Amino acid sequence: MAVYAYIDVSQKQEYIYKDSKLSNNLYNSFTIKAITEKLEIDKLKGKNKIIYLSSYVDDDKFIFSGGGNSVIRFNNSEEAKKFVKEYSFDVLKKYPQIELYISLIDDSDISYDTNNREMLILEKLKEKSDYLKDERKSRFKRWTYGIEQLDGNGNPIEFYSKNVESKKFVRKYLFDKFEEQLNGIATITEELKQYKKDEKGKSYIGVISIDGNKMGEMIKKYINSFTELKDFSNLIEEIYFKSIVGAFKEYKKQEETELLLMTPVLQAGDDICLIVEAEHAIGIAHNIIKKIEEISSLRDDLKKYTGSGCLTACAGVAIARYTYPFFELVKIAENMCHEAKEAIYLSEHPETPKSFIQWEIVQSQVDMGILFNEKKY
After folding, report:
1. pTM of the model
2. Which residues pair with 73 in a beta bridge?
3. CA-to-CA distance for 49 and 52, rounded, in angstroms?
4. Residues 111 and 187 in one domain
5. Of the candidates 314, 311, 310, 305, which has an alpha carbon nearest to the alpha carbon of residue 337?
6. Confidence of residue 365 (pLDDT cuts 50, 70, 90)
7. What are 150-173's pLDDT values in tens digits?
């Protein structure tokens, strides 16, 4: 009897942003992607020693993979349990602070007499994963499982701290597609100190968080299989990437600025997290949302989900000195994005698709001499 496994990681943000160095944040983000998604191993050659889920599972066993999760189909429970034991041990040994969850359900748990059987499998796997997470929340926080090397203070040593080659590889993997498309438009950097400038009011960053509207509703209403879910996810990822690229090109042309600075922290499906110079942050966020609407309205393969309309999204922007704790800025930006989404439901016609932006200048860290052309947005 076939068994399905669902791979997930809890407390992702806490793990990604737990370090003060941005380069380590980027590495942590890629680590989670590598251990939870199917990646093409042929493209990952080199001296990097990161753990990849794809190295433990044959391609034909992946039913779905994307957005920080995978569903894998094993032939029987023995095969599934062997994978869980070996894979979880290796992940926890190298990344002891990652909270990895693997839920399993038997093929017989889902009736074959239904049109959306695969979506029911995914739903049950997520429910079981959530149950496991809730169980762990009621217990104390583990620092170590006693299977990894410790530093002088007794804390687990993360593998990335030793492997410079791996960090170089991650930068190349995450930045190459942006550097190729934004050549002559923006400098892609992993160093926050590059945002430091001598002029007054210039040594500040803007963290942009963007999230798509009603994605869950579209999936629940129109998608009945893993194949359809994969196609939809790939389509959204393509549109959002093109929107980022198009937004930077258009903004630079509109404002006639010099070479822009940008750090792509996250671009997965409809989730975006970018760092830019503070004085450009709101304008760039506005352009990205506008491009999402424009590009999606021209895609015939989206009509099934949007009718004759387009995709919409909300953005949150947090602005502070480049030395401000980055994790705090990410949380503020996400809160601003959440407030923007709430504004939709408070508007006169909440059923009409629309996009909003909300932002905050962190007063304790920012010189109020920064100016924004607010009437545009």
Report:
1. 0.84
2. 4
3. 9
4. no
5. 314
6. very low
7. 555 455 555 444 456 677 778 888
**Please, which residues have CB within 8 angstroms of residue 265's CB and are 6 or more apart in sequence?**
22, 25, 26, 29, 273, 274, 275, 330
Q: pLDDT tens digits for 235-277?
A: 999 999 999 999 999 999 998 888 999 999 888 888 899 999 9
Domain that holds residue 333: 182-376
93 and 227 fall within a common domain:
no
Mark whether 131 and 205 lie in a shared domain.
no
For the record, the structure tokens of 274 come out as 């970018």
> Tokens 């994307």, residue?
66
Q: Sheet containing 99-106: which strands, arranged edge to edge?
A: 62-66, 69-74, 3-10, 99-106
Q: Which CATH number do you get for residue 41?
A: 3.30.70
pLDDT of residue 109: 74
Asked whether residue 147 is assigned to any structural domain, the reply reads no
Q: Would you say residue 177 lies in a domain?
A: no
Does one domain contain both 190 and 125?
Answer: no
Dmax (CA) for the chain in angstroms is 67
The answer as to whether 303 is a domain residue is yes
Residue 162: exposed, middle, or buried by beta-carbon count in 10 A (0-12, 13-18, 19+)?
exposed
* Domains in the chain, number: 2
Place of tokens 């992607």: 33
pLDDT surpasses 60 at 119: yes
What is the bridge-based pairing of β-strands 271-277 and 69-74? unpaired
